[in-house]
Design a protein that fits this description.
Blueprint: H1 8-15, E1 19-21, E2 27-29, H2 38-52, E3 59-61, H3 69-77, E4 81-82, H4 91-94, E5 100-103, H5 110-119, E6 125-127, H6 131-141, E7 149-153, H7 159-171, E8 174-178, H8 181-193, E9 204-206, E10 217-221, H9 227-243, E11 248-250, H10 256-269, E12 275-279, H11 285-294, E13 300-303, E14 309-310, E15 313-317, E16 323-327, E17 336-341, H12 347-367, H13 382-386, H14 399-409
Parallel strand pairs: 2-17, 3-4, 3-5, 5-6, 7-8, 7-10, 10-11, 12-13, 12-17
Antiparallel strand pairs: 1-2, 8-9, 14-15, 15-16
The structure holds iron/sulfur cluster (SF4).
């Protein structure tokens, strides 16, 4: 991993089995597996290498390399020009002949990849697409015949889903994105009746006029979906295909890194933490899935970094919504806080949250005239200086207030 994203406090926590003792009987608990996955480490290393050997040439990144602002800002400071995610096609207009063009870990649509290959020699295209995403595409490329209906369990608009859709449509006539259980109900119905219009139009993609309803069906998953959900959806779609005698092929493409992080997060959530903080980029799919998993077992908040925290309120967001503030998020008598971090979250951001709690507890102990527990963590750098607790008191309000706010703030996903 790049040194810029390492964190000594997080490495210590890993060595301690994920436990960070705080004052008295208070602690933070981290899962066995969290943070950067192999695919992310690979992508960042490749982008970094290309910066080291660019010899003054512009480096154009086709959207964020991963969905994490800390990481993308760091590369921006190193001179990478990051194109807007929904305008990556502009590269064909603004890119110069000497540019180095970098494909992010999610990949890019096939048409764009082909246009780039026409325009730039291989040495000027740095492809950081994760191997697990390429395995998914390999499955689609192996579909035999054009009559397939491809169902993509994924987040519409996510760059990986867009890249996958373009490949699905190269090998089939119809591709449909299913966000979850509700869309799957509609798809099961459509497989039986042919009435695809019930699925939102933005999620239906057709390359050319379709033959009469029938033909084989394939299901793939965006690599970072909620694993437990994918198996349920797969079974329901299989049953619908059996009913109407349509061949069905499933590619179980949620990646191992996503599954491991979700399994480890589940174990943390089963220990009854008072609160779970899920740390990661707001557009990150795998982070959003950790939140969905956590919110069933404890009050959970998706935060970008420690700057979201104050003893009496937290600035967080819902996976499909905007940011919001919740007061009194920290119960007065809290004992255990779970910290989860997505595969695109740098250890440094997790470490900042750990230090925030250490400072909060030290200040609380000092306030009560007791020696502060643990190590002295008064070395705020510019990041955690911003992240220090604003008011050095523990627990911002009653549990009743917190429960009421959470109920109001959480729409169904
Ligand atoms: S989360 Fe999975 S698909 Fe995404 S970069 Fe990591 S290994 Fe690759």
């Amino acid at each position: 991993m790049l040194d810029a994203f390492r964190d000594a406090d997080v490495e210590l926590a890993r060595r301690q089995g994920g436990l960070v003792p705080l004052a008295g009987d208070r602690s933070l608990v981290l899962p066995q597996v969290f943070g950067f996955c192999g695919g992310v480490v690979h992508a960042l290393a490749k982008l970094n290498e290309c910066l080291d050997r660019r010899c003054g040439r512009p480096v154009r990144l086709l959207g964020p390399v991963i969905h994490n602002d800390t990481v993308n800002q760091w590369f921006r400071r190193r001179g990478v020009d990051i194109l807007e995610e929904d305008r990556i096609g502009d590269i064909l207009r603004v890119g110069g002949p000497d540019d180095i063009v970098v494909i992010p870990a999610f990949g890019v649509p096939l048409e764009l990849a082909e246009a780039l290959a026409q325009r730039y020699p291989p040495g000027q295209i740095v492809d950081t697409t994760c191997r697990d995403v390429q395995v998914l595409w390999g499955f689609l490329a192996a579909l035999d015949g054009p009559d397939w209906t491809v169902l993509v369990h994924g987040r519409p608009g996510h760059p990986e889903t867009r890249a996958t859709l373009s490949r699905a449509l190269r090998h089939s006539r119809r591709a449909v994105v299913l966000r979850g259980a509700e869309d799957t109900d509609l798809a099961c119905q459509a497989l039986r009746t042919g009435a695809w219009e019930a699925v939102p139009a933005a999620q239906r993609h057709e390359r050319e006029p379709l033959p009469p309803e029938g033909g084989p069906v394939a299901l793939v998953n965006q690599t970072t979906m909620l694993y437990s959900e994918t198996s349920t959806l797969a079974e329901r779609l299989a049953a619908a295909c059996r009913e109407v005698n349509r061949p069905y092929r499933l590619a179980d493409t949620v990646c191992r890194a996503t599954q491991d992080r979700q399994d480890a997060a589940r174990r943390i959530c089963a220990t009854y933490p008072d609160v779970v903080l899920v740390i990661g980029g707001r557009a990150s799919s795998n982070t959003a899935q950790l939140y969905r998993l956590a919110e069933g077992s404890a009050p959970a908040y998706l935060i970008e970094n420690a700057r979201a925290l104050s003893p009496d309120r937290v600035t967080h967001w819902l996976p499909e919504g905007g940011p919001q503030e919740t007061p009194a998020w920290l119960p007065q008598r809290w004992r255990r806080i779970g910290l989860l971090a997505g595969a695109s979250c740098p250890a440094r951001d997790v470490g900042d949250v750990v230090r925030w709690f250490q400072q909060l507890c030290q200040a609380g102990a000092a306030h009560r005239g007791q020696p502060g527990p643990g190590r002295d963590k008064t070395r705020p750098n510019e990041r955690n200086a911003e992240a220090q607790p604003e008011r050095m008191e523990e627990g911002g309000g009653s549990d009743e207030t917190r429960t009421r706010d959470l109920r109001r703030d959480r729409p169904a996903l």
